[in-house]
Automatic annotation (TrEMBL):
One function term, GO molecular function aspect: ATP binding
NCBIfam families (UniProt xref): recN
A cellular component term, taken from the record's GO annotations: bacterial nucleoid
One BP term from GO: DNA recombination
Family affiliation: Belongs to the RecN family.
Function: May be involved in recombinational repair of damaged DNA.
InterPro entries, A to Z: DNA_recomb/repair_RecN, P-loop_NTPase, RecF/RecN/SMC_N
Gene3D superfamilies for the chain: P-loop containing nucleotide triphosphate hydrolases (3.40.50.300)
Signal peptide: none
Name by which UniProt lists this protein: DNA repair protein RecN
């Protein structure tokens, strides 16, 4: 509930600090005195956009601060979801700077207007004649019936499953699109993959084949060269080995004379042994070299296949071809995987739909039971408000679609007079009737759900004194369950309040200012008497005011 309101430098208000009780509060004042200014200030607290024209002194900032007692509202989850510090006494502050910039704070934490608006829904319901159109909206009609039916836990459960259901449906649609794309590419990808698999590619294979190809392609020249090397090494007269042996034998003769000579000998001997080994291997290799045209052709075909694949896929190595092969394999296998995913999610969707149907059926059944309760209550209240022949009919029809709060569609039908047919509420009810119906609805809702603070802004416009008396009684009864404000011009309603505030406008020097003042008993008698008789307060009006105040 709203406990205090502080306004500084806003419209005609220079400075205002006012406290409120948790009961039925009345706000009165002449037209133009500033009641709309107070509502405008509260509108800023609830997240409405600020206007630089709202500043009384354009050189000073405007500050509006409201304190709310939240301990009974179970709003801690909202604060946690929005990463805000929760306090049982929460402070909301709006600032409008001379530059036109606006700032908002919840418990000193900066917030944006959307967060303020979302919290404001739980705090204050400012209701005027112009807002009765929400009675014609399906969502609001369901809120009425579901409150009476105590359907809120079921609706929340339904919405949780619906959210998952919609997410699964969206996921399924995406998978189906992916499957369609995969099917289009499937044959081509499978063909490309088969080409790569047929090539039996391995890392390092290209280099190995190219080396083998060069050997086979030049086998005669290689063999000729190796034979020549062997001949040069082994020739008895001029062979390298023969000369090395002579060098070795010569050095052996002087090796004992010096360590240096011995090292020359040892090193020459090592060279001789190594060269002898090399010549032997060359000889053996030369004997094994054969001209094999068939093998050469096979290797050439294999290499050409690799080169063709590299050109086709615009790469230069076998390693890159293997990466492409792996990617194609994944794509080809992905279709099977997609089919499995689609089948799995279709089962999940079917299960969610079955659960939704079950919850929706329970919601529907409870709504049907709540309809006669609502009809009886609202007709009873409207009879008190001068509508003795008012009748309501509510039609709730199940549909195949999943709506946000179940599978029902609703029509709220109304007849104000005997013998007249039912018609849609929004088409057949007058403005005055809609105001009384809305008050009746709010009174019923107060019994079944924790409503926020409600402010009735001249909802009593155009009603008689007797009806106003009944409206005041209804609002008074509502205040037992919630904090209620009524901005009124009718003394019959003003007299019902537990507290009475007066908005007044006065001239101070060159300035016009508005004030909001809590009236004491004597001031209240005078105010109500003035509402009864005008500026000239008579003894009769004083007596009538006292009678109204009992």
């Amino acid at each position: 509930m709203l406990t205090t309101l502080s306004i500084k430098n806003f419209a005609l208000i220079e400075k205002l600090d006012i406290a409120f009780s948790d009961q039925f509060s009345i706000i009165t004042g002449e037209t133009g005195a500033g009641k709309s200014i107070v509502l405008g200030a509260l509108g800023l607290i609830l997240g409405k956009r600020a206007d630089l024209a709202s500043l009384k002194d354009k050189n000073e900032k405007c500050v509006i601060e409201a304190h709310f007692e939240l301990s009974k509202y179970s709003l801690r989850p909202f604060f946690e979801e929005n990463d805000l510090d929760y306090e049982d006494e929460t402070i909301i502050r709006r600032e409008i700077l001379p530059s036109g910039k606006s700032r908002a704070f919840i418990n000193d934490s900066p917030v944006n207007l959307q967060e303020l608006q979302e919290l404001g829904v739980f705090l204050i319901d400012i209701h005027s004649q112009h807002q009765t159109q929400e009675l014609s909206e399906e969502l609001y009609q369901f809120q009425i019936i579901d409150s009476i039916a105590q359907n809120n836990p079921l609706v929340l459960d339904y919405q949780s499953v619906l959210k998952k259901y919609k997410s699964q449906k969206s996921q399924l649609a995406q998978l189906i699109v992916e499957r369609q794309e995969a099917i289009k590419e499937q044959d081509y990808n499978a063909f490309l993959l088969e080409e790569l698999l047929t090539a039996q590619l391995k890392n390092g294979q290209q280099e190995e084949l190219e080396e083998r190809f060069e050997q086979l392609n030049n086998v005669e020249f290689i063999k000729e060269s190796l034979v020549k090397v062997t001949a040069i090494a082994n020739d008895d007269q001029i062979g390298v080995l023969q000369h090395l042996k002579e060098i070795k034998n010569t050095l052996h003769k002087i090796a004992s004379f010096s360590t240096t000579y011995n090292q020359f000998y040892e090193r020459t001997n090592s060279v001789l042994l190594e060269l002898d080994d090399i010549v032997e291997e060359i000889s053996e290799h030369s004997e094994k070299l054969l001209n094999d045209p068939e093998q050469l052709e096979l290797i050439n075909q294999k290499l050409q296949a690799i080169y063709t694949l590299q050109k086709k896929h615009q790469v230069t190595t076998v390693a890159e071809l293997l990466e492409i092969q792996e990617a194609l394999d994944t794509k080809v296998m992905a279709l099977d995987s997609l089919e499995a995913k689609i089948a799995s999610i279709e089962k999940e969707i079917a299960a969610a739909a079955e659960k939704l149907d079950g919850i929706a059926a329970k919601i529907h059944a409870k709504r049907q039971k709540a309809i006669p309760v609502f009809q009886e209550k609202i007709v009873g209240i409207l009879q008190l408000l001068g509508m003795p022949n008012a009748r309501f009919a509510i039609e709730i029809n199940p549909r195949a679609s999943y709506f946000q709060n179940g599978k029902d569609e609703i029509q709220l039908l109304f007849s104000a007079n005997k013998g007249s047919d039912f018609g849609l509420l929004k088409k057949v009810a007058s403005g005055g009737e809609m105001s009384r119906i809305m008050l009746s609805v709010k009174a019923i809702l107060a019994e079944y759900s924790k409503l926020p603070t409600i402010i009735f802004d001249e909802i009593d416009t155009g009603v008689s004194g007797e009806i106003a008396q009944k409206m005041g009684d209804i609002m008074k009864k509502m205040s037992r369950e919630m904090q209620v404000f009524a901005i009124t011009h009718l003394p019959q309603i003003a007299s019902k309040g537990d507290q009475h505030y007066k908005v007044s406008k006065s001239t101070q020097g060159e300035n016009t200012v508005s004030e909001l003042k809590l009236l004491n008993t004597e001031d209240r008698i005078i105010e109500i008497a003035q509402m009864l008789s005008g500026n000239e307060i008579t003894e009769s009006a004083i007596g009538h005011a006292k009678a109204l105040l009992n």
